[in-house]
Specification:
Layout lengths: L2 H15 L8 H29 L14 H17 L10 H8 L16 H13 L7 H4 L17 H16 L12 H15 L12 H12 L4 E7 L6 H9 L2 E9 L2 H13 L7 E5 L13 E6 L32 H11 E12 L1 H4 L2 H13 L3 E6 L12 E7 L7 E6 L5 E3 L2 E3 L2 H13 L7 E5 H6 L21 H29 L11
Parallel strand pairs: 1-2, 1-4, 2-3, 4-5, 6-8
Antiparallel strand pairs: 5-7, 6-7, 8-11, 9-10
Length: about 525
């Protein structure tokens, strides 16, 4: 598929999404359209898989009749195979195309009319059947309650059942006309389109966007940083994974990722993350995403990860319960992050989960670099005792959805090759202005990555600071203390300015004299006293 065709697919899906826009908010119709796209993906995936199994019999899965003895036998055999390979099952009558056709009066050879067959009950049952097909199998947890946010009874879809049915039928009909091209195993076309939609929804969701999406340039930067020295990862982890986009970006940057782990507090976003994994063809056995509060109830405590990436909610509140002083994640520091700002608590949690040879990159607000109290104590311990902070990278302001504050990336490694210094990079002025947002382009990202790999110093951009110099600064990591970006104002040539003023005065007098002469010819007084003298 060409780049132009890829963009056309993205635009088609966005146009279909806008069919629902007038009915509800961006974060609400997001759940419907992404859920329907996911249902269509599952349908086409199972149909392609089954057709390959049926090829020798010269049969097509969609044409099998589960009410006939032979059809039922084939379907039963295919179900067992599909559950092992794909982790779920759909009957031919439950395929997306079948329900979309029924809803738009195209079944039984009829033509589409202005009215729609009622399909909401069938659709609700089908989505529930997908989840129930996994019960008792290895994929049960990955599909549990996956479609719970697709409430087809919601009044937001319409005042009457007919209005709701007509709207959903219309959306399904539009989606049914799009070829997801799943047979092309070399291109993740649908995955890219899904990411595009998530990004578009994030741009319209305001402050809520930060709950589920990290802008792609930031995701790319973090992914490149954690894969710089290791392209074959046994595991990658995101403790605040949102829609899973950051984890998938690491998978894309690495040559190989063994297993993907994540945890997400928001239930709706947790469902979106699991859909995102499956839709990007990550096998159900290759990811483990949990829904729970990471700081209060970590679900992967016993594991250590080769790569950790995260964009935690900035300065979120947490309990800071004194009982956590006996928790291995926090106890060695002797202090807990304040309950009004959990930034350092997330850092402590991730450092604890990081493998000895692993790399961790996390986006945080600038306050973590210089705030005192408990945060200052934790920062000092990370540098002085653990010596695991490898780099501090300042990013441009106004690059995140819902907030314009400048942010930074902290890179951690437990076994550092350069334990005597920390690299500081000031990339705050390296961006392109796009409307009201600042965007980091590939060349800006690559410059950061190249500087990090080389650990090079560049005037007004990067510098290596010794641990001793940081100690002398009372463990303050504010970037301008180490990277001098001061731009001196151009010196003023007073002699040249004096000469220019003298010349202007002479020219002004000559102009006054000319005006006075014109006034004399006209027999009127000049507009200023002393003219022409």
């Amino acid at each position: 598929m060409s780049e132009e065709q890829r963009r056309q697919l993205q635009q088609q899906l966005w146009n279909i999404a806008n069919t629902l826009r007038g009915k509800m908010g961006a974060d609400e119709f997001r759940d419907y359209i992404l859920g329907f796209i996911f249902y269509k993906y599952l349908s086409e995936k199972i149909e392609h898989f089954a057709n390959l199994q049926l090829a020798q019999e010269n049969l097509q899965f969609a044409a099998l009749d589960d009410s006939s003895k032979d059809g039922a036998a084939y379907i039963s055999a295919l179900e067992d195979a599909a559950l092992d390979e794909l982790g779920y099952f759909l009957k031919p009558s439950e395929l997306f195309h079948a329900i979309a056709t029924k809803g738009n009066n195209q079944n039984d050879g009829g033509k589409r009319g202005d009215s729609h067959n009622f399909i909401l009950g069938d659709l609700t049952k089908i989505l529930k059947n997908i989840e129930q097909s996994t019960l008792g199998t290895d994929s049960e947890e990955e599909f549990e309650n996956l479609f719970e946010d697709l409430d087809l009874t919601s009044s937001k879809l319409g005042k009457t059942e007919k209005e709701k049915n007509d709207l959903i039928s219309k959306v399904l009909a539009h989606l049914d006309q799009i070829d997801f091209n799943l047979t092309d195993s070399t291109a993740d076309v649908l995955g890219d389109a899904y990411e595009y939609l998530i990004g578009e929804f994030a741009s319209g969701a305001g402050k809520k966007a930060g709950e589920f999406y990290t802008p792609q340039p930031v995701s790319t930067l973090l992914a490149k940083l954690v894969t710089t020295n290791n392209q074959n990862l046994k595991s990658v982890y995101d403790p605040t994974c949102g829609s899973g986009s950051l984890l998938l970006r690491v998978k894309k940057e690495a040559k190989q990722v063994g297993k993907i782990y994540g945890q997400e507090l928001n239930r709706t976003t947790f469902n979106l993350a699991r859909m995102n994994m499956i839709l990007h063809d990550v096998h159900f056995s290759d990811f483990d995403i949990k829904q729970e509060d990471t700081l209060e109830k970590p679900q992967h405590r016993e594991l250590r990860f080769d790569a950790i990436v995260a964009n935690p909610p900035f300065s979120a509140k947490w309990s800071a319960n004194p009982l956590f002083m006996s928790d291995d994640r926090f106890s060695v520091y002797g202090r807990l992050a304040p309950n009004s700002k959990a930034d350092m608590a997330f850092v402590q949690h991730m450092v604890y989960q990081l493998a000895e040879e692993g790399t961790m990159a996390v986006v945080l607000p600038h306050g973590v670099l210089f705030r005192g109290g408990a945060e200052g104590h934790i920062r000092q311990y990370l540098i002085e005792e653990l010596n695991c902070l490898d780099a501090v990278i300042g990013l441009p302001a106004n690059i995140f959805y819902g907030t314009s504050i400048p942010t930074c990336v902290l890179v951690f490694k437990k076994c550092r090759k350069n334990p005597e210094d920390i690299l500081f990079i000031d990339a705050s002025n390296h961006f392109e202005k796009v409307k009201t947002t600042n965007v980091m382009r590939p060349e800006h990202i690559q410059k950061i990555v190249d500087t990090y790999k080389a650990r090079s110093s560049e005037e007004k951009y990067s510098a290596l600071a010794t641990i001793e110099s940081i100690k002398a600064n009372d463990w303050n990591l504010n970037i301008p203390r180490y990277v001098d970006t001061f731009e001196a104002e151009e010196s003023t040539d007073l002699a040249a300015i004096s000469k220019q003023l003298t010349q202007l005065d002479q020219e002004s007098k000559a102009t006054d004299k000319t005006i006075a002469e014109f006034c004399k010819e006209l027999g009127i007084e000049p507009p200023f006293a002393g003219a022409g003298k």
